[in-house]
Amino acid sequence: MGLRLQGLMFPWRLPCLRILQHLQLQRFVASESVARCSSKAMSMEAVQRRDPEEEEDEKLGVLIVGAGPVGLTLSILLSSYGVRSLVVERRSKLSDHPQAHFLNNRTMEIFRKMEGLSEEIETKQPPLEHWRRFVYCTTLAGRVLGTVDHLQPEDVPSGRSPTSVAHFSQHHLLPLLFERAQRLGRRLEPKASTVKIASSVLNAGPILMGHECTSIKSSSDGVLANIFPTQAGIGQGQKLACQYLVAADGAGSSVRELAGVQMEGDENLQKLISVHFMSKQLGQHLLDSVPGMLYFVFNQRVIAVIVAHNLEAGEFIAQIPFYPPQQQFEEFTEEVCKGIIYDAAGTRDIEIEVKTIKKWSMHAQVAASYFDKYGRIILVGDAAHRFPPAGGFGLNTGVQDAHNLAWKLAAVLKGHCPSALLLTYDTERRPVAIANTALSVANFKAAMAVPAALGLDPSAARLVHKVVNSGVGLLLPERFQVTLLDGLFAIGRAQVSPAFLSSLNPIGSARVLEVQRILREGQSLQLQFPAEDLGFRYLEGALVPEVEAQQQTNSHWNFPTGRRREYLPSTRPGARLPHFPIRMFCLNPPATSKEICSTLDLVSRGGNRMEFVLLVQSQRSGCCWGDAAITAGQAFGIWVKVVFIWPSGSYDGFLGKSHIHTESAELGNDQMSPDKDMFSNDNEATAVFEWSQRNKGCVLHAEEVGCGWRDIFGIPETGAILVRPDDHVAWRSKAEPKASSTQELYLAFSKVLKKPNIQVPRFMQ
């Protein structure tokens, strides 16, 4: 029988063992400190030999270029770990042009831990009934060809997540993120190297608006960035030394270009004009007739997609295909755009206010690497990947990039881990981006099924444009090229004229029936992808993969179809910890929380410590795994929180045994004393109770709400699951604990934290 089991059978031996192990651990840590001091002395010599021109004040930990949703999310997460960052944004104010608007479950879960951001979004977003549908029509005021409801009964509320998906526009999300980033960043003491820059802009705080990164010099020691005001005459440029620079500056990332990182994949799949306009009359009309999120408009004058960002407010975006060089962006004036919107609406009896007009290109690309050659410049969000908007993966994948990167940056900058840990960001997130690119392209192609059924083959339009811009077409006068292109497109749009789609026309009627079949069978553009949203799994990186799991692949990523797939919970290493409703309670004093929370709430962040969570069942084996994890974690400076999961009804059962009424047991009641007799008939519970008494500072108890956790747990009850700070499983064991369990956890931490050269202390062997 192993060391830990002996300690549990003979309680008087365990304190002695823990003291002995603590002394041995102190010697081990002390020896490591000596080695670090020696290394530091060598580093000081290297600093003294530096070129004086490169000498800077104390380096900033992280410089984030770009105050979009991804950059601001990263700033907030770093602040929660006690790591100060500076965000630099070239615009003088946040963008008010609507862009991304669909937030999936995983993104909302991340926002849920950012001071209740998900709840604020749910409160401020439009009502669900206003945006759950896609509408296919000839005009917004005319004939509806079909609709698709993208929220199934199991989606709202969702049993797979503590949050729901949301429809909340990026330009409304940004101020919420900005306020949190500013406030949390101000709590951290500023570094001297950023004070000089911040002083040029009043109350700049951790976010510096109206400044851009004009050049960068990267090396193995860090990054030297030149920061200049975007408007002449406002302050002077400064050199800023930082340990890491994160490029969150969007699809056209200048930092990516400066770093020399190439994009791989297809570019310029389509060019579009994006028109932001307001019309409360149009919004009210759609609320009264057919509310939806996206309106696909097909008629003889215009083909467009109208995005209803908020029907009550009358806020919309019109997406219009754009074919340069025959069509010039400057030609899309406010009056021209109003005319297009009137044609899409099917009426001119509405007031329209055009706010902004922009152009953009659709790509399907992923960066060849998420790092520069020195590993000091890191790409996130659209700077790292550019997707078609089909499925809304852009913003969501970017937020999840930041979530993956934040804890790793904090661990490295705080000295818990070597820089090798950061490289797992590329290892883990780049395959996800490649998979999401393929899925977005597949979904985009599926979206073309409806216009193709109506006789509007999008590939034909691209072919016409290509012909006009090559060979004989280029020999034609420019005005004739424009006339030819417009004429050919007009012939194509005649396929959706009222006369052609009339019920009296058998061809038109057959096409409409085909559209309705496509929509009914889910073969058109999809909104939700639960399997990819919550079920993506890292196959390698900061984790300990299982041998049998390595032999399997995520085939649904390799062969994307653009169709919805359901999420299957998993606790395999690399997977997101499954959500399951639980209720927290205490054993000493007996107390329970009436609030139902999620297993995801067990993983907390904040403060200066790096915390992992060990999930075990409420029995003797869980105590053994808890001892092993706590001891191994201490060797790496990692705090391990041990969580015992109890069957539903356990707490009330304890109270019944101790003759304490449930209504008198309120959380925080210090007057109640523990009653050991409550466990007298349960040796397993007694072991857990006594172990919890000895480890009060690092143990939690949670009771299942309902049944089913043991099925989701996915391993025998005597096993254990180790969860990373980003909610992903780092390691698990299906075996019972044994004498070598501490060594096993030590090796697991070594692999996860990328410290492979540290020998196992002798007392763990």
UniProtKB/TrEMBL annotation:
InterPro entries: FAD-bd (IPR002938), FAD/NAD-bd_sf (IPR036188), RIFMO-like (IPR050641). SUPFAM superfamilies: FAD/NAD(P)-binding domain. Keywords: FAD, Flavoprotein. Residues 61-437 form the FAD-binding domain. Gene3D superfamilies: 3.40.30.120, D-Amino Acid Oxidase, subunit A, domain 2, FAD/NAD(P)-binding domain. PANTHER family: FAD_NAD(P)-BINDING OXIDOREDUCTASE FAMILY PROTEIN, TRK SYSTEM POTASSIUM UPTAKE PROTEIN. This is FAD-binding domain-containing protein. It comes from Sphagnum troendelagicum.
